[in-house]
Amino acid sequence: MKIELAKMERMSERGSSLLRLIQNSHTPLLDLLVRESVQNSLDAAQGERPIKYDISVKQFNKYRVSRHFEGITESLNNKFQDSAQESIVIRDTNTTGLTGPLHQDYIKNDHYGNLLKLVYEISMPQEKREAGGSWGLGKTVYFRAGSGLVIYYSRIKDESGNYQSRLAACLVEDESKEDALLPDNGTGRKRGIAWWGEQHSESSTQPVTNEQQIREILQDLNVNPYIDDETGTTIIIPYINKNDLIVCRDDYSDSLWWHNDLELYLNIALQKWYAPRIDNPWYRYGNYLLPSVGGRPVTRDSMEPLFSIMRNLYIAAIADNKIAVNKIPVNVRDIKIYRTLENPAAGKVAFIKVSKETLKMTIPDNKKSPYEYLDLETNNDGKNKPIIAYLRKPAMIINYETDSKWTSNIEQTSTDDYIIGLFVPNSVNVISKTDPPASLDEYIRQGEKADHSSWSDITVNGQKQTIIERIQKKVSESVRNEYNKDSGSDDLPKSSALSRSIAKALLPPRGFGFLPGIGSDREKKKNSIPHSVKSGSLNILDTHLSGEGVMAIKFECDIPARVKSLHIETLVDSENNKRINGDKWEGEEEIGTRFPVEIKKVMVKSPVDSNITYRKTGRFQVVNVAEITLIGFIGKLDGTIFMVNHDPSIQAVINEKIEKVGS
């Protein structure tokens, strides 16, 4: 194949800078390779058939391969001493392949196509809104997995219905290194970037399309060509060093079996990041994934227990029916946020507490712990941190969190149990503040880092949103409410625990409400003699639970004479013993939802029940007796954010003692 050295141009990247575009130091290189390659295959799906994806390690003879690369044949043979070399081969079928024009000269209407974007361009994002990639930088991982040389082979079906094969190669290397493969361009300067293919013009190349030549190159690489009606893309990364690719944590006392073989490692990485979409016909947004490693299928039955659980959590979050793992029901909770989405339903979190037995960590299986499979830090205090994962529409898990807002204040479990959860967003929900309207999935996609390792909130129309922050808070709260226990509750007899649960559901909490306050126009003067004031009292008259799950509480306040105003305010006791009023509850810094307590009716009465007149103020009905001239309510009669009347005030000019004020 003919060589094309990248020209030295203004504002152009060099090989060394391209290799540094995504320096993800916390995710192993092979994991990044699996994440990027699978996502590229999923984004190229066609039809309704499952996408077949295979990643394998193949051997080849260096002399038979190097001869195809003009300009670096001798450099390759000198740099890699052994005649037997290995490559990583990534192959998908039931995909569109690398479509589009063969060269930039043929571009029309600014449509580059998959071929030019993948092989010849950098930093060009996906045009599909639902696509996994958004930065166009993930492919740099291919150049870092081997010598920097990457071969792209694809078979497409053109608009005329004819099949066409395409093959090209690209090399990106650190041009400053002494063992760099590429020669300079005659000026003594290097960019560290080159392409190979067939001649297009005096200074450029395009992919090889000659079937016989492509088959010869593939045969030397020990790679099979596409046949019959197959279309797809194969990416070949030759001259790899397996010892440099697998990196094991130094804080695990024993060796992890998948760290001893490259294909075993790739198998675990595939399950780790794509468990929800593997062999999953319930996937709702298109083609599901049928992967294999070294030609051996990865199915729902062959997955490791941990990743099988992750797959079931995803199904539980999207399905209407309940799902259990080893007869343990999966908990599913709606995650709702308000004022930003057209529909408050932001998604669902599915979670479960499982034992070592369920994870098959005991004899005779002796599986590893979730922390080892997920490359997470373990605790030294004998407890297990909760694990919460999250993903968006393409169903690639973004990350597994143990110490973040996703797991805030969720209690750790004993060493025998593990809390595992997965958040699945309502991807088709719409952000109400965007113009044109954007889906929740698109919002999340724009806030993903280039390596897709986390989510962050973005600015919309000049205003910073807090969608992700609120989702994180709701997810951790949902899991916390299910598993966090009151101290000493485990020691209660079953009958006592049942009694307490029923009482908690039907009766108001202990210390409900406050005594009415005393208002006075008299200012306290210095050195004045304090006088005693008789305080009033609050009495619960009736409590009942309606069929809609709403509790109604009828109460009255006995207040002393000469009281000119009464303010009623409802508060909620939180888990940390902090009382929260309606304004704070509905605010962003606390709960952010509708306040759960509302005062529906206020009645003022005296001992005399004759000559009663009525007046409506706001949403309240006030009963006035002849002896009282009512000025009216003051306060938040129009409600708060969610129009909840939770703290009305009553002010009256009093001719006679008011005996009772009730709500």
How would you sum up this structure, described in words?
With 663 residues, the protein is α+β, with helices and mostly antiparallel strands. Helix content is 20%, strand content 27%. It contains 15 helices and 34 strands. Strands 1, 2, 3, 4, 5, 6, 7, 8, 9 and 10 form a 10-stranded mixed sheet that branches. The protein has a 5-stranded mixed sheet with strand order 13-14-19-16-17. Helix 2 crosses helix 9 (262-274). The longest helix is centred in the C-terminal third of the chain and has 17 residues, at 467-483. The protein is elongated and about 100 Å long. It starts with a strand and ends with a strand.
In short:
By secondary structure, the protein is α+β, with helices and mostly antiparallel strands.
